[in-house]
Amino acid sequence: MLRNLLDPGFVQQREDMRLDGREEFVSFMRDGRPQTDTRHVIDRYIQSKSDDEVVVRGHLEDSGGSEIFVFLDRFRARDGKLAELKTFTRPPN
Question: Where would I find the SnoaL-like domain in this sequence (predicted)?
Fold first, then answer.
């Protein structure tokens, strides 16, 4: 399902890594994450007027509900598919 949302040239850039291509991102999300029993909680999002960019602020929780980190994600779309994700993180408050 995730694969169908992503442009073939999808790129995610984070402070610690870069994932190039839809398949690399899907593989990381399925098999490469250091902690898989987590939940992304969205606190706020802003969508651009042109509908090609969304900024999401939230935090990642572990299975017990404790914050692991706070994130800010900037998504960009192209031709109805997600083409780019830039992720910024910081430790919880």
Answer: 2-84
State the DSSP code for 50: T
pLDDT of residue 28: 94
Is 37 buried (19+), middle (13-18) or exposed (0-12) by CB count in 10 A?
exposed
Identify the H or E element spanning 40: strand 39-47
Domain borders along the chain are 2-90
23 band by pLDDT with thresholds 50, 70 and 90:
very high
Options 3.40.710.10, 3.40.1160.10, 2.30.110.70, 3.10.450.50; CATH of 2-90: 3.10.450.50
pTM value surpassing 0.85? yes
